[in-house]
Design brief:
Layout (H helix, E strand, L loop, with lengths): L18 H10 L1 E4 L3 E7 L4 E4 L8 H18 L7 E7 L8 H18 L1
Helix pairs in contact: 2-3
Length: about 120
Amino acid sequence: MLKLPAKNSIPRSKSLKSKPVIDGLLESGEKLSGDSFLTFFSFSTEFKTAILVGRKFGTAVERNRIKRRFKEAIRVNIEKLVKPVHIVFLPHKEIEKVSVEKLDAEISRLFDRINAKA
């Protein structure tokens, strides 16, 4: 019998909520750009992530959909990271048109690029 995990998501403890830490990453973190998002990261003692989606993306429903798609792509690819990092994602406006598969592949490539810098 197939047993699914109790929760199939990123734990809340892996969320980056501290404004000073996020501002520090945006100012002095390493910057990588993808086709549909910009990323700032720095190596840390544990993995934490933030997805910054502003009001230019429309209603709260649309912004939350973007965040859910990012979180799923991160969850699927998180095992690729060699060292723990703090990552901030800033999506571009065209992220709304990107398929889930393309976003997943793009985050996979991003994690490979981060590993190359480790």
